[in-house]
Amino acid sequence: MRIVILGPPGSGKGTQAKIISEMYGIPHINTGDLLREEVAKGTEVGRIAKPYMDQGKLVPDDVITRMLEERLSQEDCKGGFILDGYPRNLHQVDLLDEILKRLGVDLDCVLNILIDDEVVVRRLTTRRICSVCGAIYNLINKPPKKEGVCDICGGRLIQRDDDREEVIRRRLEVYKEQSEPVLERYRKRGLVRDIRGDVGLEALPAEIKRVLAGCK
Ligand code: AMP
């Protein structure tokens, strides 16, 4: 199964991708993670990408596309993959088409996570991160035993700057601007399957199975 997954920040995209990856035995390819690895390893791609990433700008298409093609050409992607973080614009849709054509494969499905903006705002503004070990809490669903203190290491819990409401609303706007044209293009091809982003963790595997059963 070859899947692209799209969803706004705070939609649980990473969680859904991880479940799908385990369920179908396919690698979860996240372009942001791939780039962070390149930066950490100090490769040429990493050196080019870093200044863009630091400013929250898109890395030039040719750089990221070359890196992605290399990754999708590896053995573990032969049986399929779930692609997260790409494509982010129409040019990248075309570039992905070209990569898949060279590899002699097709996309089976574009999974589109539907979630209300207010649910995302509530989820992210109540998120707290341990400033020491990075453990993630949520004041509503997963509160720490002691207010403001990490259960695991006793570190101080903080709110990330980009989890503030005005920043979240801006990120949601940017996501919509970027993803609408991509979704429209894939919808015309009949590839898009909508999936709910507000179901609980326990119900998620069944929801994923139901939605993906409609794919090729
Ligand atoms: P993310 O983890 O998805 O937020 O990605 C982190 C950063 O990596 C982004 O801010 C971009 O600089 C870069 N990046 C990830 N995916 C892409 C992409 N498809 N095209 C261009 N830049 C990307």
Structural features, described:
There is one protein chain. This protein has a single domain, classed as P-loop containing nucleotide triphosphate hydrolases (Rossmann fold, 3-Layer(aba) Sandwich). It is an alpha/beta fold and 216 residues long. The protein has helices at residues 13-24, 31-41, 44-54, 61-72, 90-103, 117-125, 165-188, 204-212, and strands at 2-6, 28-30, 81-84, 109-114, 127-130, 136-138, 157-158, 192-196. It contains 8 helices and 8 strands; from the N terminus they run βαβαααβαβαβββαβα. The radius of gyration is 18 Å and the shape is globular. α2 (31-41) crosses α3 (44-54), α4 (61-72) runs parallel beside α5 (90-103) and α6 (117-125) crosses α7. The strands form 2 sheets. Strands 2-3-1-4-8 form a 5-stranded parallel sheet, sandwiched between helices. A 3-stranded antiparallel sheet has the order 6-5-7. It binds adenosine monophosphate (AMP). Adenosine monophosphate binds next to α2 and α3.
